Amino acid sequence: MSEHVAALCQHSTPFSQTLSFPLAGQDIRMVVHGERLPGTEDLFILSHLDDEDPESETANPRRYHLSMLQAEEEERKRIARELHDETAQQLALMQFNLMTLRNSDMSPQASDAYQAMEISLKAIQDQVRTLSYLLHPPELAEDGIEAALAHFPRGFARRSGLQIEFRCLSGPIKRDPDMEIAFYRVAQEALANVYKHANASHAVVRLRRTQTGFALEIEDDGRGVPEHILNGQGRDIVGVGLSGMRERVMALAGQLEVRLTGTGTLVTATIPRRRQCD
Ligand SMILES: Nc1ncnc2c1ncn2[C@@H]1O[C@H](COP(=O)(O)OP(=O)(O)OP(=O)(O)O)[C@@H](O)[C@H]1O
Ligand SMILES: [Mg+2]
């Protein structure tokens, strides 16, 4: 168990281990799961008695991981709603109160302070709006992955200066919230990587059908992922983005492939249509 915890701390390697020991004349089986929550420094360790039901969520690591991701998405949705309904409303009230001062007589210092407050308030309002959107993009729930992928890269391109195209080659997709949120989070992280690491000028996001399901591709024309990271030798030095994307699609029985194209990097997430989480 201590090696598992050490590997989790150092390399973010998730584990699930069953321990057996006697207690009050009974054989007790206990399952311990550990993982790093994607995109954070937080470790999550959970233990529970083994209920020995092979169909139970915790007895099945992939299903268990999927339910963790679903809980995480619910929490993001809750925070996004809170930011929108509470924080943004308070900021709007503050803006309204500030505006009532605009035409009043003010000393030059007060006028400077007033203008600085207006600028800061506007910046905070923009940040809250962006954060709330990224935590839970409303069009994902309302209009599906095609609409969300058409919209998100546009805003990302505006903020980052990257040229981003979205090509929907899949035709209409039957609604599948788990797959949609997984593709959306992969697109977010892969584009963030293009922006941070690739030194690219252009990226293309493609959604297409495969024989068994759907694939999301993010291709850039940048410097390419370093070989040692592709070979998995950079585990101790890299962040959690690539492993988080991989875990997300694997929880849906899918795969994540990262490869060099000769002119940049191609990240492909494939998720089968009919999945069995076992
Ligand atoms: N599109 C890309 N082009 C070039 N290098 C990339 C690209 N995507 C990832 N990389 C390389 O792979 C490494 C690992 O990426 P990963 O997303 O796991 O971590 P990170 O982006 O460094 O940190 P985090 O995602 O945790 O904030 C990066 O540090 C970078 O060197
Ligand atoms: Mg990253």
From TrEMBL:
Pfam families registered for this protein in UniProt = HATPase_c (PF02518), HisKA_3 (PF07730)
- Domain Histidine kinase: start-end pairs: 183-275
Q: Which InterPro entries match?
A: HATPase_C_sf, HATPase_dom, His_kinase_dom, Sensor_HK_TwoCompSys, Sig_transdc_His_kin_sub3_dim/P
PROSITE patterns membership:
HIS_KIN
Pull one GO CC term from this UniProt entry: membrane
Is Plastid a UniProt keyword of this protein? no
Under the GO molecular function aspect, what terms does this record hold? phosphorelay sensor kinase activity; protein dimerization activity
The record ties this protein, via Gene3D superfamilies, to: 1.20.5.1930, Histidine kinase-like ATPase, C-terminal domain (3.30.565.10)
Q: Which UniProt keywords apply?
A: Kinase, Transferase, Two-component regulatory system
Q: Could you identify this protein by its name?
A: Histidine kinase
Q: What is the lineage of its organism?
A: Bacteria, Pseudomonadati, Pseudomonadota, Alphaproteobacteria, Sphingomonadales
